[in-house]
Structures are given as C-alpha cells and as structure tokens.
Amino acid sequence: MKKVFSRLICMIACLLFYQLTQAQNTPITVEGNIRDAQKLPLVGVTISVKGKNTGTQSDANGHFKLQVKDAANAVLVFTYVGFTSHEEPVKGRAIVSVILEEDRKKLEEIVVVGYGAQKKKDVTGAISSVGTKAIQDVPVTNPQQALQGRAPGVEVINNSSKPGDEPQVRIRGSRSLSAGNDPLYVVDGIPYGGNLSDIGTGVIQSMDILKDASATAIYGSRGANGVVLITTQRGKVGKPVVSYSGSYGYVKQLGQTDMMNAAKYIEMRREANRTGGKYDDANQDASDKKIFNAVEYANIKKGTDVNWQDLMLSPGYQTNHGITVAGGSEKTKYTVGFGYFKDQGVLKLQSYERYNVNIGLDQQIGERVRVGASLLGAYSLRNGETYNGIDNALKMLPIAAPYDDKGNLITFPTGDSQQPNPLLDYVNNNRVELMKRFRIFASLFAEVEITDGLKYRLNVGPDIQNYNYGLFQGKNNTNLLIGGGDATASKGNAQTLAYTVENVVTYNKTFKKHTIGATGLYSVQRQNVDLSTTNVRGIPVETQQYYNLGQALNVTGVTSSLSSWTILSYMGRLNYGFDDRYLLTLTLRADGSSRFAPGKKWGYFPSVAAAWNITSESWAKNNRILDNLKLRASYGRIGNTGINPYATQGLLTRIPYSFSNKGALGFVPGDLRNPNLTWETTTSSDIGVDFGLFNGRITGVIEWYNQKTTDLLMPHLLPYSNGFNQVLENLGSSRNRGWEVGLSGTVIDNPKGFSWKMDVNFFRNRSEILSIGNGRTADVGNGWFVGQPTYVYYDYKKTGIWQVEDAKIAAKYNAKPGEIRLEDINGDSTIDAKDRQILGSPQPKWSAGTTQRFSYKGWELSIVAFARMGSTIKSDFYQNYNTLFGRYNNLNIDYNTPSNPTNDFPRPNVNQERPNNYQSLSYFDGSFFKIRNISLAYAFPDAWVKNMHMADFRVNVGVKQPLILAPYRQTWKGVDPEDVNVIGIDAPATWMLQFGINAKF
Fold first, then answer.
1. Cα–Cα distances in Å, from 589 out to 187, 214, 455, 761, 872?
2. What does R_g of the chain's alpha carbons equal in angstroms?
3. Where is it mainly found (predicted)?
4. Distance CA 498, CA 441 (A)
5. In DSSP terms, which residues pair with 954 in a beta bridge?
6. DSSP output for 637-657
C-alpha cells in the first residue's frame, strides 16, 4: 500500500512539474499601467523584454499590453525620456503596473544642437525646443505656425490667410536691411531651402531653435538669423504600430470689412457733391438724377442694396489625414507614413492641396556600423496664388445689381468701365491659376564607430524640386475688363537641384571627472535653379487656357535663367566638461561662398560658450527646493551670405537702339559691378540662466542678448548722371538686443486626476540702425534712420480734421474745413517734407505667449494664446477704400460734415479722387491679444478601446482664432491686426471649427 501511495505521489509531482514547465514556455499576455510619482499616466513609454526583440509602448492612458514568453523568468524594461529606466521581473504575473521615477531636474533629456545632440544639462548655448505635444496642440498648415507664441524670442507673423502662404519668422528680431532675415531651416541634419509647407506637420517629432552665436556659429554663414532644427519621427523598438489622425474643419471669414450699405453710400455721395457745390437739397430728386447715372438711379428707386462680400465669400474647409506605420527591433527601426491635406479658402478660386509621403529607416550592421535614411516627398497644387478678388468686391457699389432680370451676370453693374462685376472671375474659367509643385528631400547617413568614442559619419542630402505654373485670364476676366484686351496666358517652369555632402568626425570620451567631445566637419552644399517663363496675349480659343501658347496672336515676353551657388565649409567644435559642473564649448567654422568675388569668398566664424551647473556643486546637491540652476554665457560671430548669385560681377541688359536709321539690339551694364562685397557679420553676446524648482514642478530660462551686425549689404544711392542710380555695398551696421523669459510649471497636480500645466514666455527685442555709411544719418527713400528700428513708418502725422471755427488757420496751410489736419512740426505754417516724422514701427514693445493645459481623467483642454503690444500697423484698407469721392464704395466711417464735426475722417469731396494727405489715415496701434486655439480632447477608456481591438482612440474638437482683442478691431472696425508690415487687401482672415480623431492599432 505504501509503495502504491509513493508511486501516486511521484506521478502527481511529475505531472505538476510538467504543467509548470509547459506554463513557463507558453506565452502569456502581460498588461498594466505606467504612472509617474503623482499617479498620472505616462504616454509613449517603451516597454521591452530584456534580452529579446519584442516590445511595445504605453497608450494615452498609460496602459500597455505585451505577450511574454517564459513569464516566470522574464524581465520587463521600462524607458522614457526624462525618467529613470526601470526593470521589473514578471514572475509569472499577468498584471504588472509600475511607477517611474522622474530624473531629478530632467537633465538627461536629449537636445538637438546641430551635427549631433547633447544632454540638456550639457548645453551651453541658447536653445528653445518645441515638442510633439506642443505641435499637436494647434491645427497648423505649415511647420512655422507651430512656433507661434511657443518659444521666447521667436516671432511668427501670418501675413495672409491665403491658402498655401507661409508666415514670416524672426528669431531675436531683424538685423539686415537688404540681405534677408529668415532663419536657416535644417531637416534631419540637412539644410532645407524653399517652401517649408512641403513638409507635413504630422511627421515632425520636434523643433529646436538655436538663437545665440554659440549655438548657430556651427552653421557659419547661414546662421546669422538663427537656426530651426526640425527632427522627423523615427521608428522605435516594438511591434508594428499603425497610427491614424484625421480632421475636418469648417472655415469662415473672421469678419467682413465694414463697408457702407446702400443708404449710407447714397448719403456719402450726396455729401461729396454738396462739398463740391453740385447738390441742391431743395430739389433732391433732380440732384440725384445729376449725380447718379441712369442705372444707379433706377437701382436706388428699386431699393437695391447688395452686400458684395456675401456674394464673393463662402465657407471653406480644411481637411488633414495621416497614416503611419512604425516599429522595429534592436537592429532595424522603420516608419512609413502618408498624408493628405487640403485648405479650401473662403474665396472660391483659392485653395491649397498637398500629398505627402515620409519614410524613415535606421539599420544597425554589426556592432559598429549604422546606416539610415529619411525621405520626405510632397506633391502640391495651389490655386489662386496671386488672385485678389475681394478688391473689386469692396469697391463695387451697394446700389449695383449683380444679375439682370434673366439671372445673367451684368458685366458692368453700374455702367462704369472701371467697375466690372467681380463674380465674372467665378464663371466660365475666366481666371485659371494653378501652381503644381513636386519635391523629394532626402537625408541619408552612414556612421562607423572606428573605436570606442570615435565615430565617422557621412551625411548626403539630395533635394529635387520642380514647379509648373500656369495663369490664364479670359477676355471677361475682371483684370482685362478694366485694362481692355484679348485673353492672356503665362506658363512657367523651374527645376531646382540641390545637394549637401557632409563628412563629420566625432570623439567623445570621459576620463574620471573630465568629459571631452570633439566634432570636425567638411561639407559642400550646392544649388542649381533652371527657370523659364513665357507670356502671350490673344488666345484664339479660350478653352485652351495656358496649354497651347503657340496659338496665341502675340508673344509678350520670354525669359529663362540659370542660377547656381556653392558653399564649401570646414568646422571644428570642442566640448569640455569637468565633474558635471563646469562646461566649455569652442567652435570655429570657415565658409567659402561662390557668391562673392575672389579674395572675398571666405568668412571665419568663431564662438565660445561657458556654463556652470551650480546645483552640481557639493554644497547645493541636497537642496530640496532648487533642482537645477545653470549659469551660461556665450560670445561669437556669425555671417550672412544673403545676396543673389553673380551680384559681384555686374550683369548686362539688352536694349534696342537706332543704328544707321535701322533698329538694332545692344547690351549695357544693368548693375554696377562691386568686387569688394563681403559678408555681413553679426557679433553676438548672450547670458542665460536655466533653473528648476520643487522637483521639476517649475522650470524656466532667463536670457539677455546683444547682437551687432556690421558690413550691412545695402544699396548706396548714386547720382543718375553716373548712369546708375545705386550700387550694392557693405556700408552700415545695426544692433539687436533684448531679453527673454520662458516658464513651464504644474499649477495643480491632484492625485485624483485633475491637473493644470502651463507654459509661458515673454520677450522684448530692440532693433536699431547704428550707421548707414558715409556719415549719413538717414536714407529717407528706403526709410532707414540711424537710431531707429530697421523698419519704420515715416510720414505726416494726422492731428485731426480742420473744423469750421479753424477756417482762418486752415487757410494758412491752403486747407479748408473738413480736410485732414497735419502736425506742423517747425511751426512755419507750411506742410512740407520737413514735417514728416517717424510715426512708429511694426516692432512691438513686447511679445508673449502661453499654453494652458487642463486634464481630468480622459479629458484634456488646451488653450494657446499670444500677444504683441506696442507696435504700429499700416492699413491699406483705410487708404484704398477711403476715397470719399463717391465713384467707389467706401469704408463705413465717421466722416466730417458741418453737422458732424468729427476729428476721425475728412469730409467727402467729389472734386478729389482721394482726400488730401490720405495716407496719414492708415496708421493704427497694432497691439493685439489672440486666443489662437482652444481644443478639447477625450481619450476613450481602456475597456472600450480593448473591445474595439485598438491600442488608443481619442476624439477632439477645436476652435482656431476664436478671440482677438485689439484697438484696430474693436475701435476701428478692422478685421485682423496681425500682419508683417502692412494690412493688405487679400484673402480675409478666418476662424475655424475643427473635429478630429486619433487612433492606434
């Protein structure tokens, strides 16, 4: 009996051992939640099985799910930027949840610095970063818009709402007068020129802005205006993850230009004729017949009152879709994405459509070789790039009927040949304008680790661009109806071939407390642009549009050109650190540019930067309040090569002339040659403090900078008797200085789920012209004045309107009551050039931006706002649509009359096509505060997402530009004060209501 029992026990034990062995070898699904110390979910944490090639990432709720073999012995590794890596044994568990500890001060975060990356704690230059989350906070049509209000010292101004237009970007102000102030864009390590809208914003991982000389000198001649480093998304270790994002936005004009309705226009025209003594109020009907033509008079009797903006404008839309597949193993990482974007403007003939593809690949070969590639492809179609249909709509009289009794468009609704029906552009293809662009931009690299710490990297960046442009205007197009003539067409093509080849050697080594990093570079960048354009008039069959130019009656112009330039560069950078306390960076770059003449081609750009990590000192390490305190300073020189190729050579221009009473063609110099042109050079100083408080709850930066630019490339005006009116020379100097503050903080962090986080930035920049050469203090023609910003408004200053009681004083100025009163600066009773003065500048006194994020469980609300205060703007609306003589419609203004003695605007006058000194009416306070975007998102619960066989699913709704507070808008009835220099007459400003979804599988 005992033997039987013993055998039974032994059999059961063997059976249990077998089952245990089988259980260990059978894969199980392990899942759990990943949170930080405040119990908030962490999104995008990488979870991998130690020693294996399997892995995944946490979703929007911090949840993950992963199949694990040998669950009893497996170890999960959790890694996340800014947090300490954590290893957790599975021990056969099906649920594994962890809390990751935040790296003290978050100083291990990697920052892209150009030709490499550094830990944030080791950075000595002035660099601001905008990450994926900030980019996704707002709906943007191009990468530059994602920077607006997000980084101190970076100003992004939209100069148009026209689909496909790009904003202006200025980093720490404008310093050049003629050579350009745009920053250099670098995408995946390769300089990127041309239209940045070719890049779909959904593929961008981060943008780092280099601002001081230490950070930008590494790019030498192209870094004078700052550098924006764009990093695209790359594959990560883990199973393939399919991500989809889609949105649709309803777009409507932000507001209509406040023009007069029929009643107000009729009264304004009557008043204009009263002023001219041509209207008899005692016999109103007879007077109306005299001042209105038969068509206008008939429409007045019919009660015609047309809002032409309503007819021209209609709701537009924006739609944006992207799908990405990403994943990889320890050796191979990949990402493939496709995108589609369309922006249909509120003017029917304006739209922008883009197709994108992006491919990223990183491959480890053996232990020491790594290769990779990223490819960005774009094909876009832009309609109505130069179309400005709103101009004729604003001028059209409200008493003009657009259609006749049969419903046909009336060509000249008022009988005035200068006022064609603007709706004609919308029918019968009377106007067709299409720009097709194709671009392939690639970044290829191969990296070899020669020995421990020593690496060689080859970067190759081909860039191929091609555009095809066509413009057709039929004989019933409004432009031709005004000027008269047959149908016209233009056709243009351009091909740009560019490449960058870089050889980079890096060496990084740590010896006890000493850290050394060295970078050496040899690079070549070259660009070729081949351009041709043909213009014709007299298209025999208008359906041919611009596709058969050879059939036209006349060729009005043929041009073609080839332009190329090359930059050869050498660069060396040395980084030294001692005990994580003292940091030093030395940089020297030499650039040789083909744009300059022999003997002037090379420029040398050195910089030095030092930093002190105060909190790494032994006496500061146990500080419970101060997590991070770093003091840094930099000094260096950077250059600007922003002149056209061949500018130093002098170009020839063909001219016709008479030779022996016969026509002949000859050539004369078109530009005066100047072989002495050299680089604009900016010398920059920067002092900054980085800090963190309360275990990272508050982080920030304070910067002060001073930049002086010398050898400004600018035109020197010459007497016309020389045969040339100007020559390009290195003449003047300018200065930019200012300070910046950036703060990030967690205001509320409730363990129950509610949190409030914010980013705030504030900056103030002052640009000033120091000299303009030859001892001059002013160049009035160009609007340059020593001691003033690089762009100012120089004009007469309106002080009011001459009133009836001031008639005698007005007479001294040859003015009458009801006309504009100007400031007489010198009191000589004469308004002349001496009374012009600087009225202001587009440069604001200060700018600021903020992002507020509120979250509660699955809900998240974000608000993005920014402000510009103390600037001056010039509005073309108040100049072009304020004629007050009755031929065209007018802004709905408070004009002066004997019974309405206002000081705002002058009295209408039929004898003046425009009021005297009308340009003085155009200047306004440009200050504004904008809520740029409000977005509300909801992430669905894990259980719901799991039932749908998805990894993540969220929906969002947002409003773009819901609020603008500005004197120009609230006081003066303008629409949007945001513009580069002049509020132009173009596509109207818009707002958008957008709905979107994000899903991962």
1. 20, 11, 20, 32, 39
2. 33
3. membrane
4. 9
5. 939, 998
6. EEEE--S-TTTTT--EEEEEE
- 376 token code pair: 């960005």
Nearest alpha carbon to residue 851 among 764, 701, 747: 747
Report the Cα 887 to chain-centroid distance in Å.
39
Residue that the structure tokens 């960046």 belong to: 461
Task: For residue 427, give the DSSP letter.
Answer: S
**Helix or strand or coil: residue 988?**
coil
CA 800, CA 977: separation in Å to the nearest integer?
A: 23
Separation between Cα atoms, residue 840 and residue 798, nearest integer Å = 13
- Quick one: DSSP state of residue 218? G
Phi, psi of 43 (to 5 degrees): -100, 135
The structure's pTM equals: 0.85
Beta bridge partners of 963: 931
Residue 827 burial by Cβ neighbours in a 10 Å radius (0-12, 13-18, 19+): exposed
Q: Residue length, the chain?
A: 1001
Residue whose entry in the numeric block shows the structure tokens 């003539």: 485
Three-state secondary structure call for residue 975: coil
Please give the domain boundaries of the chain with CATH numbers for all domains. 25-99 (2.60.40.4130), 110-248 (2.170.130.10), 642-678 (no CATH)
Q: Mark residue 97 as left, alpha or beta (left: phi above 0; alpha: psi -120 to 50; beta: remaining).
A: beta
Give 501's contacts (C-beta < 8 A, 6+ positions apart): 458, 459, 460, 461, 523, 524, 525
State the pLDDT at residue 600.
87
Residue 392 three-state SS:
helix
C-alpha dihedral sign at 298, 304, 305, 306 = negative
Burial of 561 (0-12, 13-18, 19+ CB in 10 A): exposed
Contacts of 332 (CB under 8 A, 6+ apart): 361, 362, 363, 364
C-beta of residue 490 within 8 angstroms of C-beta of residue 533: yes
Closest by alpha carbon to 880, among 530, 388, 239? 388
Residue with tokens 């809520």: 931
Residues 6+ apart with CB under 8 A from 167: 142, 144, 145, 148, 156, 157, 158, 159
User: How many helices (H) and strands (E) are present in the chain, helices listed first?
Assistant: 13, 49
On the 0-12 / 13-18 / 19+ scale of CB atoms within 10 A, 512 is exposed
Q: Count CB neighbours of 899 within 10 A.
A: 5
What whole-number distance in Å separates Cα of residue 835 and Cα of residue 833? 5
User: Which pair of tokens denotes residue 402?
Assistant: 């657009």
Residue 372: predicted pLDDT = 94
Structure token digits, residue 888: 């065209």
Planar angle of CA 641, 647, 650, nearest 5 degrees: 165
Q: Which residues of the chain have pLDDT under 70?
A: 1-26, 37-39, 53, 60, 81-83, 102-110, 720-723, 751-752
Q: What is the pLDDT of residue 142?
A: 82
Torsion of CA 173, 178, 182, 184, to 10 degrees: -120
The one-letter amino acid at 272 = A
Q: What is the DSSP string of 272-292?
A: HHHHTT---GGGHHHHHHHHS
Residues paired with 587 in a beta bridge: 573, 607
Interatomic CA distance for residues 135 and 141, integer angstroms: 11
- Which DSSP string do the residues of 461-527 spell out, in sequence order? EEEEEEEEEEEEE-TTSHHHHHH--S-EEEEEEEEEEEEEEEEEEEEEEEETTEEEEEEEEEEEEEE
Candidates 597, 673, 685; CA nearest to 635 is 685
What is the rounded distance in angstroms from the CA atom of residue 844 to the CA atom of residue 392? 33
**CB environment 101-129: b (16+ within 10 A), e (fewer):** ebbebbbbbebbbbbbebebbbbbbbbbb
